[in-house]
C-alpha cells in the first residue's frame, strides 16, 4: 500500500509500505479521506515522544470497510482504541482509560495510508449523502463537541444567554464555534492571529472573528465561557484576562508548557478551569448525527489535496501559506 511516512523531524516520505493486516476483532478500512491534525504537526516537528519515527501518522479518517461482514460500508473512524472491559469504558469515559491507544501512535499505524486496521466497534456508519471529506471531519469536530459540552455543564446559565470566546481559529477552534452555535449560543467570537484564517472563518461560516490585541477584542472580564483551542502561554493568559468572575475556561489545546494561568484571579473570582481531551463514544455519535443532519454549517473551510502531496501540505500549514482551517488528504487520488 502507499503511505505517507514520518521519517524524522520536518520530513515526510510518500512511499510503499507493507499492507496492514487486521487482528482478531478488527477490520480493514480503505482510507478515502484523512485530515491533518495539530497533533500530526506536533509530531512532524519532532516534539512528540509518543510518536517516534518512522511512523504513519493520521487519525482523522473516513473510508470504506474492505474486510469482514460489513465490507463495503462507508464509515468514519473513532481512532481511540480502548479495552471495553476497563472501568473507565464501562463508565462511558473511554477517552480516560489507561488502556487507551490511538491510531498514529505505536503500536497502531495511522491513516495516512491506503489501508488502516481498526476494531469494528470503532466504526460509525455514514449516510450516502454525506461527503467523505465531511465524514473525515467527525473526529476533530467530536473533540470540539466534547469541549463545548464540558463547558456548558460547568456554566451556571444557559449557553443561549452566554457570551463565548474561542481562542484559536484552526479546525478545533472553528468547530467549537460551530458546535456552541448549534447548542444555542449567539454571542460567539473567535480570536485568530492568522489573517488568512480570519477571512476564511468570516466568509465560510459568518462568525465574528478578531485579531488578538487589536480592536474588536472583547473587554477584560466580560466573557462567560472561554475555550482555549491553542493551549499556549499567550492564549492561557488571554483566557484568564477575558473570563468574567465565576466564568469558565475550557483548555483543549495541547501545546507544551503550563505558564500563563493567572492563579490569583482564578482563586479570587472563583473561575472554573477544566481540561477537555478527545471525546466519549456518545460525543462521537452525536457529532456524526449532526454532520448527517447538516446542522453544523457550510463546512467549506477545508482544502483537499492528494496523499502524495502530503509533504507540501505540511510545509504550507507550517508556514501559514494556506487560508484553509484544515487540509484533508485523499489516498488513492
From TrEMBL:
SMART domains: PKS_ER. Residues 8-329 form the Enoyl reductase (ER) domain. It comes from the Bacteria. Keywords: Membrane, Metal-binding, Oxidoreductase, Transmembrane, Transmembrane helix, Zinc. InterPro entries: ADH-like_C, ADH-like_N, ER, GroES-like_sf, NAD(P)-bd_dom_sf, Zn_alcohol_dh. The chain crosses the membrane at residues 159-180. It holds the Pfam family ADH_zinc_N. The keyword Oxidoreductase applies. This is 2-dehydro-3-deoxy-L-rhamnonate dehydrogenase (NAD(+)). It comes from Methylobacterium isbiliense.
Amino acid at each position: 500500500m502507499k503511505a505517507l511516512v514520518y521519517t524524522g523531524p520536518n520530513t515526510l516520505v510518500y512511499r510503499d509500505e507493507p499492507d496492514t493486516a487486521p487482528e482478531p476483532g478488527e477490520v480493514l478500512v480503505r482510507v478515502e479521506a484523512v485530515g491533518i491534525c495539530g497533533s500530526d504537526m506536533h509530531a512532524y516537528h519532532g516534539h512528540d515522544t509518543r510518536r517516534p519515527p518512522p511512523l504513519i501518522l493520521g487519525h482523522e479518517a473516513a473510508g470504506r470497510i474492505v474486510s469482514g461482514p460489513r465490507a463495503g460500508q462507508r464509515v468514519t473512524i473513532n481512532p481511540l482504541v480502548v479495552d471495553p472491559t476497563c472501568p473507565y469504558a464501562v463508565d462511558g469515559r473511554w477517552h480516560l482509560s489507561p488502556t487507551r491507544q490511538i491510531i498514529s501512535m505505536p503500536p497502531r499505524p495511522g491513516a495516512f495510508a491506503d489501508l488502516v486496521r481498526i476494531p469494528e466497534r470503532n466504526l460509525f456508519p455514514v449516510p450516502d449523502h454525506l461527503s467523505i471529506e465531511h465524514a473525515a471531519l467527525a473526529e476533530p469536530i467530536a473533540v470540539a463537541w466534547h469541549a463545548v459540552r464540558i463547558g456548558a455543564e460547568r456554566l451556571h446559565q444557559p449557553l443561549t444567554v452566554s457570551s463565548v470566546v474561542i481562542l484559536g481559529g484552526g479546525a478545533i477552534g472553528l468547530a467549537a464555534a460551530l458546535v456552541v452555535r448549534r447548542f444555542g449560543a449567539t454571542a460567539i467570537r473567535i480570536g485568530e492571529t492568522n489573517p488568512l484564517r480570519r477571512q476564511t472563518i468570516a466568509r465560510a461560516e459568518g462568525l465574528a472573528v478578531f485579531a488578538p490585541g487589536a480592536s474588536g477584542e472583547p473587554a477584560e472580564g466580560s466573557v462567560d465561557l472561554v475555550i482555549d483551542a491553542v493551549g499556549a502561554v499567550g492564549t492561557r493568559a488571554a483566557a484568564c484576562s477575558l473570563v468574567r468572575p465565576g466564568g469558565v475556561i475550557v483548555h483543549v489545546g495541547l501545546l507544551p508548557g503550563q505558564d500563563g494561568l493567572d492563579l490569583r484571579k482564578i482563586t479570587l473570582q472563583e473561575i472554573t478551569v477544566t481540561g477537555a481531551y478527545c471525546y466519549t463514544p456518545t460525543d462521537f455519535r452525536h457529532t456524526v448525527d449532526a454532520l448527517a443532519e447538516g446542522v453544523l454549517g457550510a463546512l467549506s473551510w477545508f482544502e483537499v489535496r492528494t496523499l502524495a502531496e502530503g509533504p507540501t501540505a505540511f510545509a504550507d500549514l507550517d508556514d501559514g501559506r494556506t487560508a484553509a482551517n484544515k487540509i484533508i488528504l485523499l489516498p488513492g487520488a
